[in-house]
Design brief:
24 helices, 8% strand, four-stranded parallel sheet, 51% helix, RNA-binding, four-stranded antiparallel sheet, 13 strands, Isoleucyl-tRNA Synthetase, Domain 1, alpha/beta, Gyrase A, domain 2
Length: 629
RNA sequence: GCCCCCGUAGCUCAGGGGAUAGAGCAUCGGUUUCCUAAACCGAGGGUCGCAGGUUCGAAUCCUGCCGGGGGCACCA
């Protein structure tokens, strides 16, 4: 069996599921199911106020009330409402007149400056600085940084990572693993009940290969001392043998491959010896992938692989036949979709079941066991047809209340835009990649340290342990962030230098912003606690202070948008903007040397809230921070 | 053959009805008696693949074409 997230060729797919009903093209959803519109959500606040102003004035006020966007140019204010132009036609009035009537009815006096009407009918909002300051003060006193917890928690099963065991994890598994983990963290933070389930490929042909390898090439000594490594060796050995036999005879039977297939078939048929060996191998295989998950800081609530569902498959097929959803055809059992569309097999003519059967059994099990509102599949784009068929079949089968979503992502490509390979043509092993990232981070630390010394700067002298810790955190953060910061639906061109770059929109930049921030507190001896328990109301007089404050208060709407569309890269984009705002602030607004102690306290509040927001944002991406680097 | 996706700056990518299309890298120029220079500031660089259409308004929606990729019973 192929892993679900094998490295692959490309392409993105549009959202398959609509979580909100957009009445107008391009409008932002007014609300996300289960997410309360309260707290510091600036966008929602304006949308609500606008909707209230439109109520009684126009039909479908919430549709037009939702047409609020951040401005692209700060000269136009902070946010803009675009409702007047489309409403002009509906009401048969001039857009500027409509805009004026809307503004007259808005109840936002204590929140925004008097709105400006500009251009063809844009209504521009600029928040009052004193209002922003009070919101910031409230956010600082809040563990959740002003982000509301959901009013209606949903139960969501997230199916991600799902590698084949019995062979080393490779770079192709990375995207599913870290996107799925990030979505888990995000939805949990917003208050949803998330159940993570690693749907392992633990029952397929790769086990046949292991069985064949074990029977022919095992090294007893190696198995005793390091079974995991021996498993990997056997797998590679067998795969090489199969590959060697493929060149001459593409179509002709490959004796080794055929032998492996037979081992697999025997396993499925319950052959005593093979089942015993399967039970022997599994813990070793699990230990191997578990090591990587630990390093990546990824945990699963359940690891129910394909083998778990094996006993249920015959009943699944029978049930689908009984209900007339599946038909027998050419000796197989299939489910038909459209007249011109090929069917999906749920039982092959040799009696074997397919991954469609397993996935159907899995849906039934999950729905009956956990009663989820939604099941997310974080899987390679190329399986979109499979999921379309799977979801269609499941709904016909009666599972039409659960929302089934294929959270698809693009492929990992090499510099030649072909699927990423090592020089030898194999997949890049995940662990090697992580080691390389950490090694590069360590080299970067060395280089930077020498440059700092050459400039006569103070250098934080890290002990060996802390240095390793920094390298691990920075290196893994770089790898994760490089992937997560890209729209998941795009193909991902793998590039060492870009992935491990420490400039620009990278985890390192964010981690560094955090470190500089913490340095201020360390240097001054100021404690952070008072800024969290009894925060002062900050003064926002410098443009850099105001811009930073505004960005900090956009955290809530960012997380909401990321959750609606299952797009972690929105968080990355936000953090990048936040870190840039902080940099400008840092450059222009001395903190410890501010003119007054009141201003110092105000700026320390901004610093601490920035640090906490960066730390929280990175945490939602599965990335850690360090105190010094 | 049928279906799906993509084409935006030299490169890698955001933006997917709203104001003059953005960022990073790369290139060029500048910044350190100052809280970490793994930083900051500035400059150049685009016919948003092409052509029609819808709209007050299109990179964004529709149609066609060109180029690239993927998927399409007995692998998963």
């Amino acid at each position: 069996m192929l892993p679900r997230s094998c490295p692959a060729l490309p392409r993105r797919e549009r959202r398959q599921q609509t979580l909100h009903s957009a009445a107008l093209p391009g409008m932002m959803p007014l609300s996300f199911p289960g997410v309360q519109r309260t707290g510091m959500n600036l966008l929602s606040l304006l949308q609500e106020k606008l909707t209230a102003a439109l109520t009684g004035l126009v039909p479908h006020p919430e549709t037009y009330g939702a047409l609020v966007r951040p401005t692209q140019d700060e000269r136009h204010g902070d946010y803009q409402a675009n409702a007047a132009m489309p409403l002009a036609k509906v009401l048969g009035q001039k857009p500027l007149d409509v805009a004026r009537r809307i503004v007259e009815r808005l109840a936002l006096d204590d929140v925004v400056e008097p709105p400006a009407i500009a251009g063809p009918g844009f209504i521009n909002f600029r928040f009052r600085s004193d209002w922003l300051a009070r919101q910031l003060q409230a956010a600082a006193a809040d563990d959740r940084l002003g982000v509301s917890s959901t009013a209606r928690p949903r139960t969501v099963v997230i199916d991600f990572s799902s590698p084949n065991v019995a062979k080393p994890m490779h770079v192709g598994h990375l995207r599913s693993t870290i996107i799925g983990d990030s979505l888990t963290r995000l939805l949990r933070f917003l208050g949803h009940r998330v159940i993570t389930d690693n749907h392992l490929g633990d029952w397929g042909t790769q086990f046949g290969m292991l069985l064949y390898g074990y029977k022919h090439y095992r090294n007893e000594e190696a198995l005793r001392t390091d079974p995991v490594r021996e498993m990997a060796r056997l797998y590679v050995k067998v795969r090489q043998e199969i590959a060697a036999g493929e060149d001459e005879a593409e179509e002709a039977a490959n004796p080794v491959a055929e032998a492996c297939r037979q081992e697999t078939a025997k396993l499925h048929a319950g052959d005593e010896e093979n089942v015993r060996l399967w039970r022997l191998f599994m813990p070793w295989c699990l230990a191997d992938i578990e090591r990587i998950y630990r390093r990546l800081d990824v945990r699963f609530d359940h690891t129910l692989g394909e083998s778990f569902y094996h006993p249920m498959l015959a009943d699944v097929v029978q049930s689908l036949l009984d209900r007339g959803i599946a038909q027998k055809s050419e000796g197989a059992v299939v489910v038909w979709f459209g007249a011109n569309e090929p069917p999906a097999l749920i039982r092959k003519k040799d009696g074997a079941f397919t991954y469609m059967t397993t996935d159907l059994a899995t849906i039934r099990y999950r729905v009956e066991t956990w009663k989820p509102d939604a099941i997310l599949y974080v899987v390679d784009f190329r399986q979109s047809l499979h999921f379309k068929n799977l979801f269609d079949t499941a709904r016909r089968w009666g599972y039409d209340q659960v929302e089934l979503v294929h959270v698809s992502f693009g492929s990992v490509l090499g510099p030649d835009r072909r699927p990423i390979k090592t020089r030898e043509g194999g997949a890049i092993e995940l662990e090697q990649l992580l080691d390389e990232a950490v090694a590069r981070a360590e080299q970067q630390y060395e280089r930077t340290r020498e440059e700092r010394l050459a400039r006569g700067e103070e250098v934080p002298e890290l002990g060996a342990d802390e240095r390793r810790q920094v390298a691990e955190t920075v290196g893994l953060g770089a790898v994760k962030y490089a992937d997560l910061s890209q729209n998941r639906e795009s193909d991902y061109v793998f590039n060492w230098d870009k992935m491990l770059a420490m400039d620009g929109n990278t985890a390192t930049y964010m981690q560094y912003a955090y470190v500089r921030n913490r340095g201020i507190f360390r240097k001054s001896g100021a404690a952070v606690e008072p800024f969290r328990t009894e925060p002062p109301e900050p003064t926002l007089t410098h443009p850099a202070e105001r811009a930073l404050a505004l960005q900090l208060l956009r955290f809530s709407e960012t997380l909401q948008a990321a959750a609606i569309e299952y797009r972690p890269h929105l968080i990355c984009g936000y953090l990048w903007e936040l870190a840039k705002s902080y940099s400008v602030f840092f450059q222009n607004c001395p903190v410890l040397r501010a003119e007054t102690s009141v201003l110092t306290r105000s700026r320390l509040l901004l610093c601490d809230l920035t640090a906490r927001t960066i730390q929280r944002g990175l945490d939602l991406l599965g990335i850690r921070t360090v105190e010094r680097m």
